[in-house]
Amino acid sequence: SLSLSPLHSLHSLCKYTYLSSLHTSRNTQATPTSNPPQMKQLFEKVAILCKGWKKRPELALITQVESAIGLLNLRSIIEYDLQDSTESTIFVMSGLIFGADDYAADIGAVRTTGNMEVMYARQSIVAHAKAYGLQAIDLVNINFKDSELLQREAQEGFTFGFTGKQIIHPLQVTPVQEAYTPAEDKISWAVNILTEFARLQAAGGAGAFTVAGQMIDMPTIKQCQNIVALARAAGKLAAEEANEAEAKEAKEAKEGEQAKEGKEQQPPQSSPQK
Predict the structure, then answer these.
(1) Contacts for 251-259 with beta carbons within 8 Å, 24 or more apart?
(2) Which long-range contacts (CB under 8 A, 24 or more apart) does 140-144 make?
(3) Which of 39, 47, 51, 99 is least surrounded by Cβ atoms within 10 Å, i.e. has the fewest?
(4) Active-site hit among 81, 102, 138, 217
(5) In whole angstroms, what is the distance from residue 73 CA to residue 65 CA?
(6) What is the pLDDT of residues 177-189, one digit of tens each?
(7) Does residue 45 carry a pLDDT above 70?
């Protein structure tokens, strides 16, 4: 990925895009932005460079948020990016990155290890990203030798709903990957709930049900589905096992519907004559 200053990044990014696209069909570009006009200027310059090409490059674009005005304009920036994605094959909006240190400097905040001063921005970025189906990449930890702080921060980001976290040193790879991988007990919890949900759906459905003393409804079901998807992506849950559970859920749900339809279609029995 590439991160550039928003004031003089456009020409440099276009030049880099041109060079890198000669070697690969898809690259990821990250650029800070604070308003849609900056994105428009970028798109127009790249379109000029690609004019006349038989095959346009397809670039996954990650927008970096690092200023107060950028955060306030985030919805309009995303919508402008997505609009360009539907009108051309150059950029495909992929995610949002939070530049916490630049953001803190912009608002005059004092950086702390607890990150309370950027709590609002972090949660706002997650909400915007998930609302538009994008990845949300959390702040970077510059204290790369403090593994305990990194683990705590990464786990917090995972809990908030971030998809991943920026790193600046090889020592940070394993702790971040571990933090963003569901624990074994969480995976078992999710699989058990989804299995029970499938059984109840096959039996006619239930608005809410109980597993191990916990009330389960659709928000919890969605959370379990997310956990299973993450576990499968991380290799913690075999694809065959996950697919089998999903297939079983779908099959039992379908059988339940068919049984219900068959019961409704049965002709009413006439009362015996006295």
Answers:
(1) 252/198, 252/199, 252/201, 252/202, 253/198, 253/201, 253/202, 255/202, 256/201, 256/202, 256/203, 256/204, 256/205
(2) 140/100, 140/101, 140/165, 140/166, 140/167, 140/168, 141/167, 141/168, 141/172, 142/101, 142/168, 143/113, 144/168, 144/169, 144/171, 144/172
(3) 51
(4) 217
(5) 10
(6) 999 999 999 999 9
(7) yes
